[in-house]
Design goal:
The chain has about 475 residues and is an alpha+beta fold. The protein contains 11 helices and 22 strands.
Length: about 475
Amino acid sequence: MMMRYGLCLLVSMFAVTLVAKPPLTDGETDPVMLDLDPYLIKAMRGSAVKILPGRFGSEGSLVDLVKEPAFKKLVAKHELKLFNGPMLGAVTPTSVRIWVRTAGAASFQVVVGDQLSELVATTEQSDFTGIAMVEGLKPFMQYTYKILLDGDELTDPSFRFRTYPSPGMHQKYAVAFGSGARYVPPKEGIWSVMAASEPLAYLGLGDNVYIDATDRRDVQRLHYYRRMLRKEYRQFIAQTAIYAVWDDHDMGINDCAGGPGLDQPWKLPNLNVFQQNWNNPFYSHDPKTPGTWHNFVMGDVEFFMLDGRFYRTDSKNKKDTTNTMLGREQKQWLLQSLKQSTAKFKVLCSGTMWHDLADKGGKDSWAGKRFRDERNEIFGLINDEKIDGVVLISGDRHRTELWKTERPNGYPLYEFLSAKVTNMHSHDVRKEAEWSLNEGNFWGELGFNFSNSDPTVTFTAINQDGAVMKASTFRLSELSH
C-alpha cells in the first residue's frame, strides 16, 4: 500500500513538473519585485526554471514566510506592512468592500469621507487577508479613502473610486474585461493604461494568473502574491472594482475540467486559495455547491460571471456522463436569475467562447459536443422568455474579436472576446468573425450610454498604448424581441 501511494505521489509530481509554466522574471524593473520575487519563487516553488518542492510543503503560504527573518527584512525595507491590496470589490450605489492582505496578523479599518468601517482582523486562517465594508455612500459619486492599519494611516493617490449608478440614472460608464493575464514583467504597464481609462470595474474572465499546478497551493499563492506586489496592478485594483472567475490555468492545468461533485481532493483547497485572493460579492449562490460564479448589478446592467471549469464534464473520465459546462446547480441559478433580471442589458461572462466557430472545433468551448445543448438551452430561454438586451463576453483565445450568432426566433447574440492582456503568445485571427485582431496586448471595454431614449452598448478593443483598435456599437432596440 505504501509503495502504491509513493508511486502515485511520484507520478503526480512528475506531471506537475511537465505542465507547470515557469514564472517569468526577465525584464523585471519594479524595485519591490527585484528583491521579493527571487525570494518568493525559491521559497514556494523551489526554482524559477522547473517546479520543485518549496520550503514549506505544498500548503505553504505567507504564514510561513513571515516567520523568516530574511523575509521580514525585505518587508521592512519596502514598507510592505500592507503586503497586497487594497482591492476594491462588490461596489453598489451606496457601499464598497475593500480587501487587503497584511504581512502578518493585524487589524484595519477603512475610512471613506465621514464613514468608517468596522474593525477587521487579518489572521493566519485567512492568509492574513480581510475585507472591510463601508456603507452610507451616495450613488455615482467619486470618493477617496484611507486605511487605518494597526494605528497607522495609509493613503495613496490611487485610493479612490466611484460608486455605481442606481437603476434609472441616465449616465455613461464603462467596464473593462480581459483574460490571458500571465505575469509578464515588460507587459505589466498595461494596468496603468487601463486605470487611466477609469472603468468602474474590471472583469477577470479566468487565466487571470498562470499557475498550472493543481496540487500545489503554495505555488498558487505565489502567483497571486507576485501579481499583486507589482505597482501598476496594485494601483489598478485600488481604484477599480474587481470581479473574477477562474479558467483552466488558474484552477488546474491546460483544458482541465473539474467534473461533478466535490470528491476530487484538490477542489475545495484550490477554491479556498481563490476566495482568499479575490473580492467577489459571493462565491456561488449555494454553499452546498461552491464555485466562483456570481452576479452583480451596475445601474441598468446586470453581469453574470460564470464558472465553466469547476463542474465541467471531464471528458477523460468515462464515468462522467453529465454533459455540462456549468453543472446543474449553476445552470439553474443562471436560468432563474436571467428570468428575474430587470436590467436593460444582461451580460453573460464566460471564460471560454460561445460561438460555434470561435474555438478549435469546440474542443474547449461551448461549441463542444458535450456542451452545446446546455448553451442552446440558455439561448432558448432568452427566446422563450423574451429576454432583451443580452450580450456575451468571453476569454481564452489570445486575440480580440466580435462574433455574431444569428437566431431565427430572436435578435442576434453578439459576443465580444478579449484574451491577451499581458500574454506574449497569440492565436491566429478568425476570418469567420465580424472582426478579429491579435497584434500587441489589449483589453475589452463595454461602454454603456443611458443618456438617450434608446440606450447603447459599445464593444471597444483597446491596446497597451490606450489606442482604440476596433469598436462596435449596438442599440438596445437592436437587441430586443
